[in-house]
Amino acid sequence: MNRKLVFASLFASASLIAGAANARPMTPEDVAKLESVGTIAVSPDGRRIAYTTASLPDVTSGEANGTTQQQLKLATGPEMARTFLPDDVSVGGVEFSPDGRMISFLWTKDGEKRAVWGIPVDGGAQRKLAEVDGVGVSSYAWSPDGSMIHMLTAAAEDTERASQNKAGFNAIVYEEEARLNRLFSARVGEEIDENPRAVTIPGYVSAFHVAPDGRMAVVESAPTPQIDDAYTSKRAHIIDLVTGEITRVVETPGKLGDIEISPDGRQLSMIAGVDVNDPADTTLHLVDVSTGQYRALNAGMPEAAVDAEWLADGRLAAVIHKGAQSALRLYNNDGSVAGEYPGGELILTAVEANGGTIAVEANAPRHPTELFTWNDGGFTRWTTHNPWLSEIDFGNQRTVTYTARDGQAVEGVLIEPVGGAPRGGAPLILNVHGGPEAHESNGWQTAYSKPGQVAAGEGYAVFLPNYRGSTGYGTAFSKQHQGRYTDPEFTDLVDAKRALVAEGIADPDRVGVTGGSYGGYATGWSATALSDEFVAGVMFVGISNQISKFGTTDIPYEMYNAHSLAWPWDDWQKMLEVSPIYHVDKANTPLLIMHGAEDPRVAPSQSYELYRSIKVRKPDVPVRLVLYPGEGHGNSRAAARYDYNLRMMDWFDTYLKTGDRDAEMPGPRPALAEGTVGTGSGED
Q1: Of 4, 37, 345, 547, which cross-links 11 as Cys (Cβ 3.0–4.6 Å)?
Q2: Is the distance from CB of 106 to CB of 130 less than 8 angstroms?
Q3: SS (H, E, C) 352-414
Q4: What is the pLDDT of residues 85-119, one digit of tens each?
């Protein structure tokens, strides 16, 4: 069996190789205060870029708990950015007005409903530009001449239902009380338009895009608000904004992603699935607006289209991920390739353009997302957040390719322990992504649920495998897991372990697994069916029973189309045998299970089932279940994220670093940083 590692080229600059004189390991407290570039917008003349910085309250230093805040900033060149609004103004939907004189944004002021606001770029106070009485605005778009703002809002309040709720008659009829979004057009002037015009839109609209002529829009619509419909039935509708008439529906068969309208209004760029069974929207298409006909530009290629933006000259700029790396590709308006520019050490994630300026968001192994511009084949960095990262002693990071047992080449991202792996190998954490229709890139890989450089600073190696089912390698690769739960997708994990052991990076007796959602499924499987291979597991919002998961999830059709290709009743036994609960008799891996108490995607009952099965059937195996009230499919609040990070590392320190499966469980409460508690909730 060939297990030789093939190490991919590592793009690294001298500044990344050289360590700071006062280098120190990264900590969970550092993770809690990270900030990154959120959304970007380029001014019409290309001279300014408005952007937001996304960060959570730093609960480790005593800030009140809460969710992500986005602060508005304006940049006019490299390292020439300034904060544009007070710190307590958290905004969204940042755009420039068509004349470039104003930055517009969404803001909820002092308990009011969310509305569209604007602030002059040359100075002055912010003012409200448009709103819809009684409801908040979720997204908006300017008309090209700046005279109108089109707004997407929630349904009007049901006053009768509100009265019933207040009286205690608050029963919820599951999936039968859909409330559809609405679209309004408001005039922009010195006074607020108090009677914006309603525009009829089909089904449940989640996004819309206004054409350069201002007459036509593209709305993304599904039959209902159910997430399953968003995955399986969302389509692009071309609508006449004057008459409200739907003139065309683009009949794509699968998942639908980013849509953009060409400068002449004749074409759409559309990132979408190629068929109903395509696990992800990763193929770039061009659509003829007049006919609705579409054609794929990169179908079958071992890559994933991530984002696209039309340029004023009619070319299309697209962010392309090729395995764990990325590139900026330019297409001519006929779909031919005009040029391609590798990101090098950068992982490009989004592109925006205006006035001859192309801006991208990108991260790298040693920094989260920052703002860059592209010109003449090169990328120029405009922002530097988290300057304290210069203090961190980073573990070396690179891409690794190994050969799985059936001969398939599988790639992933390896973070070595700070200082390198010792003789005999380091404790290794396999960090398994969810989906599985997602992929890991050789960029920033540290977050509240991703051990990354925190683990590297504590002597661990971390490997993030792009196992079968991952995107970034073409649709055929992402379909390899379909109808075959656990094999080859999770045998790829065992083969990754063995390859890294053979290379001397990993200690064979100290390998653990963590991941969320489908990565949580991988963790549960590794702690039961593959327990002999893994000494510790941290499972997050994961699947333990494929039969009951079908009955409790909000994505049953997506589960069928993209993953199982079968219903549970087609073969009950087969579906049971690919469930971790079926293999608890083999469990000997200490397992920490964590879950959002209000998770609609993977019900918390999935964690209850595995916890109870292990607790009763294997009472000597360490297992703990932690629930996060108010959290869904992933933690959104600062305290819950920090708590998760502490628990994850504490569990691995107890069982994985020591290699002792029988070690005493850590205490039920993690040790919080001084000043964390007692500052108020700060919930929004």
Answers
A1: 345
A2: no
A3: EEECCEEEEEEEECCEEEEEEEEECCEEEECCCCCHHHHHECCCCEEEEEEECCCCCEEEEEE
A4: 998 899 999 999 999 999 999 999 998 999 999 99
Residues pairing with 53 in the sheet:
37, 71
Task: Give the per-residue pLDDT at 679.
Answer: 47
CA dihedral 360, 361, 365, 368 (to 10 degrees): 160
Measure the CA dihedral 298/301/304/309, to 10°: -20
Residue with tokens 């290629």: 301
Residue appearing with tokens 């448009």: 130
Integer-rounded Cα radius of gyration of the chain: 25
**pLDDT of the residue at 12:** 34
- Amino acid, res. 14: A
Q: What's 156's DSSP letter?
A: P
Mean pLDDT on 378-398:
97
Alpha-carbon distance 57 to 88, whole Å? 11
604-629 pLDDT per residue, tens: 999 999 999 999 999 999 999 999 99
DSSP character at residue 492: H
Question: b/e for 575-603, b at 16 or more Cβ within 10 A?
Answer: beebbbbbbbeebebbbbbbbbeebebbb
